[in-house]
Amino acid sequence: MTAIMTKRIYDAPAASDGARVLVDRLWPRGVRRDAADLTGWFRDIAPSNALRAVFHHKPELWDAFCERYAQELDAHPEALKPLEDLIAKGPVTLLYAARETTYNNAVALKAYLEKRLG
Fold first, then answer.
1. Which residues contact 30 (CB under 8 A, 6 or more apart)?
2. What is the pLDDT of residue 115?
3. How far apart are CA 15 and CA 18, in angstroms?
4. pLDDT given at position 57
5. Which of 62-77 are b and which e, b meaning 16 or more Cβ less than 10 Å from the residue's Cβ?
6. pLDDT tens digits along 93-118
7. Helices (H), strands (E): how many in the chain?
8. Which is nearest to 95 in space by CA: 4, 8, 26?
9. In the β-sheet with 92-96, what is the strand arrangement from edge to edge?
10. pLDDT digits (tens, 9 = 90+) for 53-79
């Protein structure tokens, strides 16, 4: 399977990133669109605003967040198709804006995709 990585959008782009995909619903503060070096912005696969507000990067809610996020993704498989197509072609880096590097939607999405794509 192709490599799926996660990275803060505030970190400098690298050649090893492959396709750079922003997976947040909102555009990150202070990032110029031309400097982001994005392959795409897939906001439709980001967690719903309601789920994001409940979780708010609380580690104690991580498992519940991942489960509910997976349910949201399962309900809209067509939204995943463009991302899955990129993954089939080569390395993909899922970009996020959160300061929290362990408990965020990109990490949850990576785990979901690795399980789904096997």
1. 10
2. 95
3. 6
4. 74
5. beebbebbbeebeeee
6. 999 999 999 999 999 999 999 999 98
7. 4, 4
8. 8
9. 4-8, 92-96, 19-22, 40-41
10. 888 878 899 999 999 999 999 999 999
Q: What are all long-range contacts of 110-114, with beta carbons under 8 Å and residues at least 24 apart? A: 110/4, 110/5, 110/6, 111/66, 112/66, 112/69, 112/70, 112/73, 113/4, 113/80, 113/83, 113/84, 113/87, 114/1, 114/4
For the record, the structure tokens of 41 come out as 């912005």
SS3 73: helix
Q: Are 95 and 38 in contact (CB under 8 A)?
A: yes
Polymer length in residues for the chain: 118
* Number of neighbouring beta carbons within 10 Å of residue 58: 12
Residues with Cβ < 8 Å from 43, sequence gap 6 or more?
22, 23, 24, 25, 26
Read off the pTM: 0.94
For residue 19, give both structure tokens.
């396709």
